[in-house]
Write a structure and sequence with these properties.
elongated, Rossmann fold, 295 residues, 28% helix, 9 helices, five-stranded parallel β-sheet, seven-stranded parallel β-sheet
């Protein structure tokens, strides 16, 4: 039997088609077994007892933790991994731009042929968080002749367990943050980590701004402790006008655009269709929320 699925608070056409592709039937919330929710947590109404599953459009769950905790008996799934390809592509672009000095050239007002000293080839890149985005980034880094240090919570598949993360701060040339925002990753990079990094190090953050102590980063950039930081996410976010990071010549900032809207819509639809199919077949759903892990 086709599962009864509600889309809210609005029902965009691409998700309507995705539910149909997955074998579901669109219904009002009162009749739903599953919900695809593209609004905010405070917009989600009280769920009827018939609802067993809620699909979210975001990959992170920071804003959803309390609602998930208050809704026992309902499985929440995220879009974790669905947007990995385009976010990894953006991360690689930021890393290359920083290492090759594009940030400096883009700000120049006169012709200066002095080349950047950096190249990505031959360097060691630490990818912190080897989930969907991290794995996609590693695949894109491999042709660039780099050594890759991948860090995960458990140290699975030959990666470095998070308990040993202190070993990498002075070892890698560059760092890309792909880890989720949890209590354990709050200010993962602060003054102690920054001050043991190499002078040419670039940090790329496409995860969440809270993974970096912004005040410590500003000081490190001003002091020349590291080479630079390329940030698609910041803390605070949006980054206020006049913030010191805007004035830093070694900061490259994009306004949380690693996941372009057209690609997000396309890939969310794919995730919805697959999870509706799995829900109908009573199979394991993709990306269930694990409150103990924090994502």
């Amino acid at each position: 039997m086709a599962p009864a699925i509600h889309i809210g608070p609005a029902a965009p056409e691409h998700l309507v088609e995705a539910v149909a592709e997955g074998g579901g039937t669109l219904v009002e919330l009162e009749q739903a077994e599953g919900v695809v929710w593209v609004g905010q947590p405070d917009e989600l109404p009280e769920l009827p007892a018939s609802v067993k599953w809620v699909q979210l459009q975001s990959a992170g769950i920071e804003s959803w933790v309390e609602r998930v905790r208050a809704t026992p008996g309902v499985t929440f799934t995220t879009a974790a991994g669905a947007y990995a390809a385009q976010v990894a592509e953006h991360a690689l672009a930021l890393l290359l731009a920083g290492v090759r000095g594009i940030n400096q050239y883009a700000r120049a007002w006169s012709w200066d042929p002095h080349p950047s000293d950096g190249t990505l080839a031959g360097s060691t890149v630490a990818v912190i968080g080897a989930g969907g985005i991290g794995r996609e980034l590693i695949r894109r880094l491999e042709p660039h002749d780099v050594k890759i240090l991948a860090v995960t919570r458990s140290g699975r598949d030959g990666t470095i367990p998070v308990e040993r993360i202190g070993e990498i701060w002075g070892q890698a040339d560059h760092f890309v943050l792909c880890a989720p925002s949890t209590e354990d990753t709050q200010h993962l990079i602060g003054a102690p980590e920054l001050w043991v990094m190499k002078a040419h190090t670039w940090i790329v953050n496409i995860a969440r701004g809270s993974l970096i102590d912004t005040e410590a980063l500003v000081q490190a950039l001003a002091s020349g402790i590291i080479g630079g930081a390329a940030l698609d996410v910041t803390d605070p976010e949006p980054l206020p006008n006049g913030h010191p990071l805007w004035a830093s010549p070694n900061a490259l900032i994009t306004p949380h655009v690693a996941n372009p809207a057209p690609a997000m819509a396309r890939d969310l639809a794919k995730r919805v269709a697959e999870n509706v199919r799995r829900f109908a077949a009573d199979e394991d759903l993709l990306a269930p929320v694990d409150l103990r892990a924090g994502y």
